[in-house]
User: Fold this.
Amino acid sequence: MNAALYDAKPYDRYYFERSPGQDKIGWRFHEFRLDAQTASTVQGARAVCVFVNDRIDESCLKLLGELGVKLVALRCAGYNNVDLAAAKSLDIAVVRVPAYSPHAVAEHAVGLLLTLNRKIHRAYNRGREHNFSLSGLVGFDVYGKSIGIVGTGKIGRIAAQVFRGFGTRVLAYDPFPSVDWATAHGVEYVDFATLLSVSDFVSLHVPLLPETFHLLNERTIAQMKPGAILINTQSRQTD
Assistant:
């Protein structure tokens, strides 16, 4: 079977060409994204593999169907860039990655916080220029601070537990709190406004839904502490 992979990066090519059963698939790798304007490039493929920035709307799907595509495989958890109703009507199957490693995302959130707090990105760039001045690079201890976790799905819970290891007070907000888990790990559930007003760091771990779209806006950002750090690893569709 021939398959076309879009928005391809070197690491995509490396792993897909070495995956089990790859000898049965004729891969075509395209660095550009798939949408209605580029759909004609799928000619001869029965499946397409796409990522978060490909636009698989109704017009794109109709063209894919006319060219014989029967499968859209998303190499991501979110699927908000695919018109599922149109795919179903055209008898095109859609599959996705069920979940990323929650530990990987949670650890990445912690890494982002430490990078921002200790200005590691700025220090790295200065060092490349042989400038070793510490001016403007001083951060502060995470220990003893308050961390606000918004969303306590798999990723949010792991992030909260990691932050507890820093000796922090961890606050959490979720419409469906995991009370037993919070009690076991010393996490305090509070309302969203309290979390924003108290936290020195706020980390988002919620799915992109109508209820969470622009969760942080002019009004809610104004409720945050001056100088607070915001970390956003919000997923597109599921957590």
Observations:
- The beta strands are 2-5, 26-29, 47-50, 71-74, 93-95, 146-150, 169-173, 187-189, 201-204, 229-232.
- The chain has nine helices and ten strands.
